[in-house]
Amino acid sequence: MSTAASARNGTWRNWGGNVTARPAREVTPASVDELAAAVRKAAEDGLRVKAVGTGHSFTSIAATDGVLIRPQLLTGIRNIDRDAMTVTVEAGTPLKRLNVALAREGLSLTNMGDIMEQTVSGATSTGTHGTGRESGSIAAQIRGLELVTADGSVLSCSEKENPEVFAAARIGLGALGIVTAITFAVEPVFLLTAREEPMSLDKVTSAFDELWAENEHFEFYWFPHTGSTNTKRNNRSAGPEKPVPQLQGWFEDEFLSNGVFQVAQWVGRAAPGTIPSIARISSKALSARTYTDIPYKVFTSPRRVRFVEMEYAVPRAAVVGVLRELKAVVDRSGLRVSFPVEVRTAPADDITLSTASGRDSAYIAVHMVKGTPYQAYFTAAERIFTAHEGRPHWGKVHTRDAEYFDGVYPRFGEFTALRDRLDPDRRFQNDYLRRVLGA
Q: What is the pLDDT of residues 205-249, one digit of tens each?
């Protein structure tokens, strides 16, 4: 089964299966000029326009009843500048292809998320991130952008060229234009040593500040209904390369993390009462391991079990308290949660609507397997996150609106004013943007 979103009978569906749309037409441009022409034609026909990558967002951020732009022909590396240490890549390039191509050139991004199915433009436009003490989201590594704006013109921006657009468009939500190319900062490929090991939740929460400070990249997964977590620490290494052996990798990453986990989800759906017992077994199935490899092979992993996700960024100093509140709610609510809760961090950045804009952040992500009712759990979690001025991931389930965002993003008005200038007729509007940015 494809990891991307699907389209059948003119209906578009996202990866998580929780969003559908029926666009008036789909366009797959083979060049920037063709894309610009499609935007101008949409304006003539009075239709709105949205671009969609692989549909990995759980919100309706890419849904439209107008023109749906598919960027899968706009792929590949345009240029590598080894003096500036940048790479310019077409917007429809999947992160997986970018990572492999960069590695072949002896280069790498500094940090990345934990999956690499998304297109570079989809991932950056929604603020996709990994975990890092000093290194931020994928968008924080952008050095230049090219986008087609509402009048069909092509606009380039960077810190020097149209800097006010650059400040916002790195995480532009598809509201400012359609991204056609991205220039990323890169560095010579390096090795990371990953240390994965189980740890009690009490130990992780009491030592969280030290674990964060001592590791370049720290994250952990807490298994609800248990006091157990699985931690992961990634740090740069002088080598030698020592990848996970192929058979062991298949057993742990495919058989346990995807195959057995999928069966556990099916059992949990059929008999929710078994979930706490399954969670206890799952949390004990993973053993400690250490391996050393190039970055994308350490940061990313396959995700074959389909799910729906909510994720909020809270101030880093608040994360332990927020997690304890979440645990208390799960413990006393009768909720049955079969998916681990993921905790990551990011340093403050200067992107207008980045979830880490202006503050050191920690991310708490809650998941439910595709097809199970998630509203009660997500509502309870969201109540806790918003009490701590949480900022939801733009591509994951949330119920917040423009009024809320105006309160948690100091530069929210800066973004909406830029949108008024670049897209006065709301060519790139949809229901989601109307809710989160205001009409």
A: 999 999 999 999 999 999 999 999 999 999 999 989 998 876 666
Query: Tokens 């924080």 sit at which residue?
Result: 140
Do 299 and 112 touch, CB atoms closer than 8 A? yes
pLDDT digits (tens, 9 = 90+) for 85-97: 999 999 999 999 9
- Lowest-confidence pick of 57-71, 246-260, 268-282: 246-260
Identify each DSSP E strand in 3-121 by its residue range. 6-8, 11-13, 20-21, 25-27, 49-51, 67-69, 77-81, 86-90, 107-108
Q: Judging by beta carbons within 10 Å of its beta carbon (0-12, 13-18, 19+), is residue 1 exposed, middle or buried?
A: exposed
pTM > 0.70: yes or no: yes
Distance CA 28, CA 155 (A): 20
Q: At 350, list the tokens.
A: 């200067």
Which residue, 132, 177, 404, 162, is CA-closest to 295?
Answer: 132
d(CA 364, CA 324): 12
In what side-by-side order are the strands of the sheet with 191-200? 289-293, 191-200, 228-237, 217-222, 341-346, 361-369, 307-315, 391-392
Largest CA distance in the chain: 61
Query: Could you tell me the two tokens for 378?
Result: 């997500």
What phi, psi does 57 have (nearest 5°)? Answer: -80, 145
d(CA 71, CA 90): 9
Give the separation between CA 413 and CA 50, rounded to whole angstroms.
Answer: 23
* Phi, psi (degrees; rounded to nearest 5) at 313: -95, 125
Where b means 16+ CB within 10 Å and e means fewer, 348-369 reads ebebbbbbbbebbbbbbbbbbb
For residue 88, the Cα-to-chain-centroid distance in whole angstroms is: 21
Structure tokens given for 242 = 């020592």
- Cis before 240 (ω within 30): yes
Q: Which string of DSSP letters, residue by residue, matches 284-343?
A: HH---EEEEE-HHHHH-----S-EEEEEEEEEGGGHHHHHHHHHHHHHHH-----SPEEE
For 187, other C-beta atoms within 10 Å of its C-beta total 13
Report the distance separating Cα 285 and Cα 291, nearest Å: 18
Pairwise CA distance, residues 360 & 348, whole Å: 4
Beta bridge partners of 230: 198, 221
Contacts 24+ apart (CB under 8 A), 344-348: 344/129, 344/130, 344/131, 344/219, 345/131, 345/132, 345/133, 345/212, 345/218, 345/219, 345/316, 345/319, 346/129, 346/131, 346/132, 346/136, 346/137, 346/140, 346/313, 347/132, 347/133, 347/134, 347/135, 347/136
